[in-house]
Amino acid sequence: MKITLKLMSDSAEIIQSYLPYVRIGIQCNKLSDFNEMKVLCHWHEDIELVKILSGEMYYYVNGKTFVLTKGDGIIVNAKAMHYGYSSSGEDCDFICVLINPVIFSAEKILYQKFVEPIIYAKQLEANYLSSEQLAHLAILQDIEKLGALHLQAQHLGNGIDMECVAVAYQYWHKWFNLVKDSLTGEDKEESEEIILQKKMTSFIHQNYMHPLRLDSIAASAHICRSRCCKLFKKYMQQSPMSFLNAYRIEVSQTLLTNTSLSITEIALSSGFNHLSYFSKQFYLLSQCTPKQYRQRFQKEARN
Question: Which residue intervals of the chain are DSSP H helices?
Fold first, then answer.
């Protein structure tokens, strides 16, 4: 069954995988778990850590693309737009860890000295981690430890919150030492392009259920259609309307698995006015019909 992200009205991800008692989320996924082997573009307050277990992933962060191969990883800072995808169609196994900086806030002075300088450093959008560099390898090993704890908890059903917090503190210490010389103490504003792109992305997430045209998407950021298309091409690697359709399909998948609405009702609720066009777009992105998708989910739920 495909994985869908839940987003708030400002397009920030609603983290569904936090541990019971601490804001740390851990997942072991494949790119094939996502439509078109591509994670929906999003951002959040959490720091995201990824380690590639097998295969290759192209990882986009605020207009920059990193190529991650087996053993490599990346750290994405808070509020940076990002997503991973397959460029070749080959699958990729990876560990994804989300750490909300609030877990370090109990000691105010420690938080101000070691956490705030990183999360407020807009120039520090992401750190590529190479398995061939010792300083990077130590962080990659921490990501793998968290992945192993996650699998242990799934098999044994035991709590891992305290162990994960311990690893998270060790990781943050290593990351701070890695980047401290690049921290200027001066906050860098987000670029105008990223601000505009976030506005348009948020507009789509808030209004997908209504009829939307290129004009209205561009107008949400007070720019012309041409610039709108150029920004989507640069930051999303697709047209505004393709991005809109992809998001509508993700919404429909959630409705298919979490409601008893008819296929026609789901199409209309997702922003598609014609059932035939909805079915065509759904098959294009999901490789099955809406009915088959729902039946597959129900079968997996019974097993």
Answer: 108-110, 116-119, 134-156, 161-179, 192-207, 214-219, 225-235, 240-258, 263-269, 275-286, 290-302
